[in-house]
Amino acid sequence: MPKFDFGGYATKNDLKCADGRTIRKDAFIDCDGMNVPLVWAHKHDDPARVLGHAILENREDGVYTYGSFNDTESGRNAKELVRHGDVRALSIYANQLVQKGGDVIHGMIREVSLCLAGANPGARIEELSFEHSIDEDCEDFEALLFNGENIVIEHAEEADSAKEEAVEHTEDTDSANEEVIEHAEKEKKEEAPVAEETKKESEKTVKDVFDSMNEEQKNVVYFMIGQALENEKSDEEEKEVSHNLFENNGGNEEYLAHAAMTDAIETVIKDGQRYGSLRKSYEHHMQEGGALAHAIDTTGLTVPDVTNAAYKVNPGYGINGLEYLFPEARELNDLPEFIKRDTTWVDVVLNGVKKTPFARVKTTFANITEDEARAKGYLKGKMKKEEFFSLMKRETTPTTIYKKQRFDRDDLIDLAKPQVVAWVKTEMRMMLNEELARAILIGDGRLASSDDKIFEDKIRPIVSDENFFTIKETVPLGGGTDEEIAKNLIKAAVRARKNYKGTGSPLFFTTESWLTEMLLAEDSIGRRLYETKASVAAAMRVRDVVPCELLENYTDANGRELIGIIVNPIDYNVGTDKGGEVNMFDDFDIDYNQFKYLIETRCSGALIKPYSAIALFKASGNNNPVITE
Questions:
Q1: Which end of the chain has fewer CB atoms within 10 angstroms, the N or the C?
Q2: What global pTM score does this model have?
Q3: Measured between alpha carbons, how far is 237 from 269 in angstroms, rounded to an integer?
Q4: Cβ atoms 545, 345 nearer than 8 A
Q5: Number of structural domains, the chain?
Q6: Is residue 120 in some structural domain?
Q7: Are residues 132 and 259 in the same domain?
Q8: Burial of 506 by CB count in 10 Å (0-12 exposed, 13-18 middle, 19+ buried)?
Q9: CA–CA separation, 164 vs 406, rounded Å?
Q10: Closest alpha carbon to 104 in 113, 112, 95
């Protein structure tokens, strides 16, 4: 190992930092052996703040660093601060982070900083190795600096002249040294109370300054620290650190500058006495070049203006911070409630369709409505003619419809709610059913270029099927109001029934808006024409009216708004081969420690009876047929 001035942990694993992050084992393994700049308090934008360099060593419990100071003025100054024990904390600046929740699992350390207070509790200087220029015979001094301990480091040159004289004028070196040491220790004991008293009078710690504040000033400090931590937490939640933001997003570099805001707040508290009040210290350090202003520029955090009355912490009565005693909010439900569309119509469609145990479906029709297919009368002596009619056929092949989900096993264990998996499977089945029913009625609506599209030749939408299967009717605008259109809708539906060839009594699928307009329709003297949904269904000659939210705002290729669809689901066939039914698959990926879930079906769908559906569209401005009584 090359010569170094000190050693210590740049960061330690599995300790929660002040910014909420926890650095995990081998997160910076790629930095092992790297030589990075040693700077003061992350001031890497100022060359004068570069104090030397640090060599990184990845260990089981963190990243150890060996620091070496340069011979610049700032390097020598920092070296003396460390030698004297004034500065002990270390901090890192890293980017290219990969973060899982609050855990940092990968990153690149770009510099190591000396600072007054770091966020990682284990990032401290642990050993010193300085050469002493005053006594060339003196061996390198080493000491361990542990967290929270006040260790005094004394050097050989600090001994008094009596010690030097004794060493020079005695022949027995060992006895002379013992005498000098006894003499020095005696003097030190005699001078210690006086020195300690003088030190107490001349110096005040951060705690002393803080204790000297009144209650209002302390409340402001509490608020500033809480607001800073809250803002930092919000910033971290909004940042996506699965990639290097510095390289990919124009300089919004993701980094760990652990000490910046903490040091700034400490500086404000320290200078409170020097400037006469905490408020004046705050205002000074918020100015350009001040500690708080620089911290804001570096971290992006915002600090509230404590001089504003809006930030008054204590109302002057009761208990300040009483909300800390409030009970925690309790969840009413074990699992979140789904916010979803009304899917009552989905079961009506899927339970009503015809199902076959094969997916490739072919339908053949013989058109015997033409005159050539009619029975003919015979005239004696004339040749009898053969009848003639045409055959038509259509073939529909299957497609796969699916939903897929996955979870990290660690997350499921930490969540401690095994019912989450069943809850998610319920959502997957519910949404698969809705998508299939949507494709049957109106199609999935995705572009043909989409990889996720359910193609119309596999699941044939009723609304846009061939005219041979779906009758297209236009509802006139009448007076132009929705109430007039609703009245015309019922008349158009009744008149379209003359061409309907479907099975039994059909259903009418429409929106809540149009159902409401039909229920509110009035006669000329203001009486409601239809009191109930059943009376609307009877007037339209359908078995029931089924509201379907997905029909809202649907328009056809000609720009006409869809009002509703009349169909008996039994005339629509859904074919599924054996094994293609709706199936749920569970799998565990050992490589990525993930549970994976898949639900899918493979089926085809199409109307199988001619003229078995009626699609009712609202007329456009230039297409307004008149319905007479």
A1: C
A2: 0.50
A3: 29
A4: no
A5: 3
A6: yes
A7: no
A8: buried
A9: 76
A10: 95
Strand locations in 354-442 (E): 354-356, 361-367, 390-396, 399-408
Buried b (16+ CB within 10 A) or exposed e, 159-187: beeebeebeeeeeeeeebeebbeeebeee
Q: What is the CATH number of the domain that holds 512?
A: 3.30.2320
How do strand 35-40 and strand 103-115 relate by DSSP bridges?
parallel
Distance separating alpha carbons of residues 37 and 67, to the nearest angstrom: 9
Residue carrying structure tokens 């029931």 = 544
Radius of gyration over every alpha carbon of the chain, rounded to an integer in angstroms: 42
Q: Are 318 and 227 within one domain?
A: yes
Contact predicate 104/22, CB 8 Å: yes
Mean pLDDT of all residues in 293-319: 54
**CA nearest neighbour of 598 among 414, 434, 453, 407:** 407
> Do 224 and 302 fall within a single domain?
yes
User: Is 120's pLDDT higher than 90?
Assistant: no
Structural domain for 550, as ranges? 470-575+609-618
Instruction: Give me the DSSP letters along 216-256.
Output: HHHHHHHHHHHHHHHHHHHHHHH---SS-HHHHTTT-----
Q: Are residues 131 and 228 in the same domain?
A: no
Per residue in 209-250, pLDDT tens? 666 766 666 666 656 665 555 555 445 544 443 333 333 333
Nearest to 38 by CA among 109, 105, 117: 109
φ, ψ for residue 436, nearest 5 deg: -65, -45
Q: Find the helix packing angle between 161-169 and 173-202, rounded to 10°.
A: 180
Same domain, 139 and 250: no
Asked, for residue 408, whether it belongs to a domain, the answer is: no
Q: CB-based burial of residue 350 (10 Å sphere; 0-12 exposed, 13-18 middle, 19+ buried)? A: middle
Q: Which helix (H) or strand (E) holds 67?
A: strand 62-69
Q: Beta strand pairing status for 399-408 and 594-607?
A: antiparallel
Beta strands 583-589; 594-607: pairing state: antiparallel
Predicted confidence (pLDDT) at residue 508 exceeds the cutoff of 90: yes
